[in-house]
Each structure stands twice: as structure tokens, then as C-alpha cells.
Amino acid sequence: MQDRNPAKRIPKSLGTGTKLLGSYTMTDLAVALFPGVVVVLCFQVLLPSNATVRGYHLDSLTLPVAGVMIGLGALFVYLTPAYTSSADWVTSMLTFHSRSENIDHEAAKEYTQIERVYPDRGAIERTDGAYFGLVQVIPPTMALATDAEWATKAESFQDFLNTTVEFPIQIYSTTQPFPVEEHLGRYESRLDDPDVESNPQLEALIEQYIDWYEAELDERRMTIRDHYVVVPVAPTEVRFDEASLAQKVAALPVLGLFVRELYAPRAAVEREALLDELDDRLDRVRAGLRSIEGCTAHRVDATEATAIVGEYWSDESMEYGQLDQVLRTRGIVGGPGR
Fold first, then answer.
1. Where residue 131 falls among pLDDT bands split at 50, 70, 90?
2. Kind plus residue range of the DSSP H or E element containing 296
3. Any idea where the domains of the chain sit in the sequence?
4. DSSP state of 227
5. Contact at 8 Å (CB) between 151 and 317?
6. Distance between CA atoms of 122 and 306, rounded to whole angstroms?
7. Cβ atoms 29, 20 nearer than 8 A
8. Longest CA span, the chain
9. Minimum mean pLDDT among 225-234, 250-259, 273-282: which range?
């Protein structure tokens, strides 16, 4: 079974390929030459030796076309991101474009590790039995802050981590496009107002502003960045009292299995305890972040959290309509109702 713990993953290689020129390896050379080799084989194997087009022998085009394809292969190698090799990049691209965009619910659940959503409790259950929730963070504006102000905020965040966070958390940041149409729609609607139509100078000013704003946003590629703290709670964290003898015995390799089965609560009781513990952790994280000057935080409800998780896995915005109603009839990444 594949281990999904990032800390336990072992890389397939550590850049041990033979270097030919700078950081380029034999594999990069093979990737660059491969398109040219395919062209030569096609001309030699698939086309007749005496084939002509408007009096020109196709054999005479073999080397020029092969050279162009090798150039494209070399360009591909040059554009390969630094975090991967050219061969792995080719494999990733072919896999991405060849696989189906839609998978059934069970396959999606295995991929996303999402078991169930609890809209009434603002929580999401994972396939391993853990529950998690999200806290959205709106940080203070630090664009014009001094070094002393940066240091003060860093110390406040350090105090938050040292005093409030006694459990594992994840920090997730994402971006979304700036709603240009929504922002400019108010100005465009003004162009139809009688007072603007009767004032050519004002109408021209609004039109110039709309044109300038669209060009400015396109040049800057403006986006909105959102920050979230992911707070989980696992069944092992609430099943026993941390200081109890049963908790210590449960950690033993063999005997612990029997102890966990003997002292494990019923599923409904365990679920309620997990949700209560998650509520407490989310409240502590929210309060701790709000203690940082200028920082605001609020708990994300299950509907919005589901949309965030779904967009993370699908890498695109999802249109579900009334998502709170969809959650009761449809899987988080599509699939049959459940």
C-alpha cells in the first residue's frame, strides 16, 4: 500500500544522471533527439523511397524536418522545470492528457481520502477516520511595514504556535482570479444612466477608466490570495485519556490491539467526541490568530470547506449550484449520490 506520509517518501533518484553539459544529462539528450529519430524512421519505413510531391523527392526533406523536430525537442528540454527531469515531465504530461477527467466516486474517495462531510458540524471526515476543519486567516497589510513591525508580527505568530498549537496543523494558501467583470460591471452599468449619457465628458472619463483598468489588471495579473489553517483530529487522540494507563498500553505493538478493541467507544460516541475536540481546536486556533494585532480569522463552514477541497483536487472552479443541498446527494468530486 502506498504511504501518503510526505515525511516517509523516498525519492526515486538524487540527480545521479551523467552530466553532459552543465545540468543536462544523457536522458535530456535522448528526449531532445527522440522527435528527430521518429521523423527519420517515418520517412524511411512508412514512405516509399521514390515518393515525390510536385516533383520534389520526400527523401530530401528528411534531414530538414528532423532538424526542426530536434530543435523543438531541445526547446522542450530547456523549458523543463527545475524540480523534475525532462523524461519525467514528458511522462507526466502524457499521463495527464491521456487519463479520464471523470472518475467514479469510490476512486475519487481513494484519491482525495475524503469519506464524508458534516454540514451541521462544519467538519469533513477522512477515509482514515480523522476529522478536520478550516480556519480562514486574513493577515494584516504589511506592504509598508517597518522591520520592527515585521519582527513584532513574527514574535506574535511564534507565541501563537508555542502556546496555542499543541496538535498538528497545515497552512494552505491559494489564489483566485480577481473578479474584474464584477468590479467593472458597476461602471459599465453607469454608462446607461441618463445623467451620464447627457454628460459626454463624464461618459468618456468612465470609458477611459474601464479601458485603463482592464489593461492594468491584465498586465499585473492581479489575483486574490486566500490563507487557511487546516486543523485535524485523529481517533487515537480522543479514544483514551492521554495520562491513563490504557493509553500507554495501547501503544504497545501486540497487546495494544486488544486494549484498543476493548476500550474503544461505540462509533457514534467516538464521532461525537472527535467533532467536539475539533470544535475546541478550531476555536483555539481562531482565538490565537485573532490575538495577533491586525489579524482576523474565522471558521470556514463545511460547504465552503468542501468547495475549497474540491477545487484543490480538481484544479478548477466547480459549479455545483446550491452546494449545501448537493452535499447530501453527491460525492465531493462528482460521482453517484450517497
1. very high
2. strand 296-300
3. 6-98, 120-178+222-300, 181-219
4. E
5. no
6. 10
7. yes
8. 92
9. 250-259
